[in-house]
Amino acid sequence: MRIEINTTPDISPLDLWNKIKAKIRDNIVRTWEIVRDGDGKEALTHVTSSQQWYRKAALKPTINTNPSRLFLRIIALPDEVIPDHYTQALYIGRFTETLMEHFSTDFIKLETFP
Question: How far, in Å, are 7, 10, 12, 18, 32 from residue 63 at the CA level?
Fold first, then answer.
């Protein structure tokens, strides 16, 4: 599953990715954490007070500049199993909620795909 975000003309996909990470680091967005994938690259995992969804999956970014899109796709983290369909859907839904709440002025179109 994946999310495709078409950014507004005044923010690049890389700028949006950096803005998302900054809000996570600044504890403005508290339900996501920056982790490393198997290649050592940054991804996001979902955090709740119960830790029920922690490291069950991750959202890994891909930056596209023409057209300006930020892609986030579900991956398994190192030493974890490939997430089931329910877990993937939960991650996509929860991150879509985060985007709508905190970053809605930074994109003109948001799509999710199975």
Answer: 11, 16, 9, 11, 19
Three-class SS state of 42: strand
**Is the full-model pTM beyond 0.90?**
yes
**54-106 residue pLDDT tens:** 999 999 999 999 899 999 999 999 999 999 999 999 999 999 999 999 999 99
The C-alpha atoms of residue 4 and residue 1 are separated, in whole angstroms, by 10
> Token pair for residue 3?
């999310």
How many CA atoms lie within 13 Å of 19's alpha carbon, on the beta-carbon side?
Answer: 16
* DSSP-derived secondary structure letter, 76: P
Domain ranges (residues) in the chain: 15-105
